[in-house]
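Before relying on records like the one below, remember that each one covers exactly one chain. Contacts with other chains, cofactors or solvent are not represented anywhere in the record.
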Amino acid sequence: MIIRQMPPERSVRDKILEQNKTIMESPVIKKILDSVPNYLAVLNRNIEIVFVNRSLSRFLDTEDTEKMLGMRHGEIMGCSRFGDNPERCGTAEFCSMCGALKSVWAALEGREDTHEYRITTQKGEALDMRVWSIPLEIGEELFILLFLTDISHEKRRRILERLFFHDILNTIGGLHGLAELMKEADYGDYEIYADSIYHLTKNLIEDIESQQYIMNAENNELKLKLREENSMQIVWEVVNIYRNHSVSEGKEIKISPGSKGVNFVTDKNLLKRVLGNMIKNALEASKTGDTVTIETRREEEEVTFLVHNPSFMTRDVQLQVFQRSFSTKSKERGLGTYSIKLLTEKYLKGRVSFSSSPDTGTTFKAIYGMEIK
């Protein structure tokens, strides 16, 4: 993987103001840029903002455009990757995967370029954007026109379409096939078909509920049902679900012998959904014959859950984990790790992380500290 990042050095303020003046003093150019319905920023060679149009200003809900001069794209969008240190925008390893930066690099080389990119803001909002970069020379200065289009709703619609027109149709096709077989079968064989029908319909309900949970969570419509629960009991229930799931075929799920149950207050259904996604992702990443291991234990005043699989995530995948719409399986998927982070950090007030190496495999960790008893 090629790591391409911006240098940390920034232009002096006077240079930024001079470049802004170049655009502002050209009434024709300014009027054209302001009339564009897309969100638009003009960048200099150092990928710093020297102008934003009205559409982008309204999208960011600010009239103080002068404050944005000299910033980089991730800074004005509030990229969560940098927390209290937004000046790192464009310089961190993660930035090498940023679609906006890739598009801008092409423009710096004199080419128009379009990319999609994902960003999670510090407010927890997950956005999918389409970026179009065009090089523009004004006098002796090279600028970049960075057009932005919010395609978040489009991406969500496409994911739902895949669910209903692909995944659900496949499941219903399987049910229809079983119904055809049952028409010709003896009554004594019905028990075999009943078991298959049960699991197919169960997976179908799970797919629909997963989408519903994400939509409600993003719309702040999830209501927590907090009760005292036992972490080991929750682990057993989730493991028993996925031992009978189609994704576990040819693979094994084990509970670590070092696991210790902890009584703590949580929303059981929400936590089971988080752990279920952790196990499902681990199984999907594993090969036939592999073993996925889950563990729960107490660490000081927190309860920890770990899910391990023997596979290794490449660095480019690691840099994009937890982003909405990112998936190694399909462009129209990508809710698994995103939902783990969303449900854990926004609703269960926990935190998630992972580690991955060729020698030790991949481990996802979820930690909660909710009134341990």
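The chain is about 40% helix and 25% strand.
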